[in-house]
Amino acid sequence: MRIIVHISIFVAVCMTGLASFVSCKSNSKDKDELLRIEQLNETDPKAALHLLDSIENVKNYNNTELKALYSLVKSQALDKNYIDVADDSLISVAREYYENSSDKYHRMKSEYYSGIVYLNADTLDIALNAFLKAYDIAEERKEYFWQGMTASKMADIFTRNCDGVQALEFAKISLRCLNKSNDATYVNYALLDLATAYHNINYSDSCIYIIEELLSDSITAHDPWLDYSSKELIGAAYIQNGEYNKAIDVLQDNSKPDGGESVTPAYVALAYLELGDIDKGKEIIESLSDSSTLISDYLKFELYDKLNYKNEALKTLKKSYDKSCNNHTKRLTSKLSIALLKYHKTEKKLDKANITKYKYRIAYIITASILVISIIILIFLYRSQKQKLRNQELVESAKYLKERLNDTSESNKRLAKSVYSLLSTQFANVNDACQTLYECENEDKAKKQIAQNMLKLINHISEDENTIKQLEELLDYHCKDIYSNLKNFFPDLKIEDYRLFLYSALGFDNLAISKFFRTTVKGVYGRRDRMKNRILNSDIENKETYIAILYPQGLKHKPGGNIGQNQNLYRPNLIISD
Q1: Residue 217 and residue 240 in contact, taking contact as beta carbons nearer than 8 Å
Q2: Which helix (H) or strand (E) holds 399?
Q3: Which end of the chain, N or C, is surrounded by fewer C-beta atoms within 10 Å?
Q4: Do 566 and 536 meet the contact criterion of CB atoms below 8 Å apart?
């Protein structure tokens, strides 16, 4: 008996495994078939729709992915066969599945075709939301074709809502993206959308230019719908521009490819009315059926107004007004309904999030435990490395101190050389004067000789370029390139400004400098003051050093800072009194 039971269990397990294997194989086959039909949608939508309708086991799909893929491919096939669907029961299966799926490509398409369904149902807010989601995914994946298509649909939504500026922006985006996809057919329709957007905001010239390019290049010759739509649009633009004869020429024989009712005769009638041919316009308008669009009512109003039929004109205008009010009320009601729906969906998502939070709590505890253990390990590793880092810091500090000592030593050498140079040259002129007195027997002649030598020295200092260059190099050497830094920071100063700074740094006062410049002491004061203001208002570093050279006795005290303090510079020049 036990043997029979074990055999039965074994057989049941084998049958279950076999059934699972067969089911997986069948699902894979069905998925491949749907993916092939999806590709066929791009080249032969009619054949794709026929294949989808011939699938007999759709209701037997036991896999949510298969159901979602079928609903998406079927929605796409219906749209490409110009079958408008306003019920979201089919596409919602795909949208709900792919919303949480990693398959972003099909998620993008599910949002796009959801937007198409809602657009057909005239629920524009929900449609716009779906198209925006599809656009974001397409942008992330660089799917330029789908970016262009979603942007085109959003342009259509804003056109319906009479927002011409936004419609134009999305029409431009659509054209730019479709150009990148290199699909000429869709690019042509994107050009038509762009021209329509320009027409709707009264940019008739731009609209006419685009359509004339389409018509002149015979682009529309092989597409009767594109040809019909382009001619109707350019006819309306001609009327808007006041070119009524051109409008009549282009619209006269323009008719829908499927033979359906068109607003083209209404545009022709309006052109005749504007040209003053009331009888012709009246004949066309009276031939229009009562089901004509809003523009027909407007044209009738124009006719009655021109014929001075006030009662008929008022009735027609009221009829147009009622239609506009109904459309406006519909838009407002739609927005309120969508707002409530969004609020309801948000509440549901919050409830779902609260339930999910408890499910993840255990996972959070496990994760926190792992983090604690990891932190403990990191602490031990940190302590083991701490001493190594401390030793490395000590080595770096020792290296830095050594560099500082070398810099200090170099500075001391420069300072010592500067002091030596100062002591060796301080009394050179006195020595030369004594030499002259010794060599000349006549004291008056010696004085003249000394005076000539001093005048010669003054001329050298004020005019000889070699002497001035030596003085500049001397100043740079002893004062860390202060003169060169001044010239580099203020390249637009005059030569006299640079010389004034040089002479001031060498210890000459205003009287001596005025002799060098052959000007007045007041002029030297003025130039010194202008240089001071230029330095104070600049971003040059160590302003105090430059000011100290220009004003060794300090500036008058100012509230803005301590630059005015007396610099107390050492002046080694000897003054010999009588």
Answers
A1: no
A2: helix 310-425
A3: C
A4: no
- Which residue matches tokens 């009888």? 279
Instruction: Note whether 77 and 114 are within 8 A (CB).
Output: no
Q: pLDDT under 70 in the chain at which residues?
A: 1-26, 218, 289-299, 303, 306-307, 320-355, 357-359, 401, 404-433, 435-438, 441, 553-578
What does the alpha-carbon distance between residue 529 and residue 527 come to, in Å, rounded to a whole number? 5
- Asked if 107 and 101 touch (Cβ cutoff 8 Å), the reply is yes
Residue 381 has a CB neighbour count (10 Å cut-off) of 10
3 state SS of 483: helix
| DSSP 8-state code for residue 555 | P
Alpha helix ranges (H) inside 121-240: 124-141, 144-160, 164-181, 184-200, 204-216, 224-240
Query: Within a 10 A sphere around the Cβ of 252, how many other Cβ atoms?
Result: 14
The answer to whether the Cα torsion of 87, 326, 298, 158 is positive or negative is negative
What distance in Å separates the CA atoms of residue 334 and residue 372, rounded to the nearest whole number? 53
Task: Give Cα separations from 60 to 27, 29, 343, 382, 577 (angstroms).
Answer: 11, 14, 36, 62, 124
479 Cβ contact list (under 8 Å, min separation 6): 505
DSSP letters of 429-447? HHHHHHHHHHH-SSHHHHH
DSSP 562: S
**What is the length of the chain?**
578
- Global pTM exceeds 0.70: no
Amino acid at 414: R
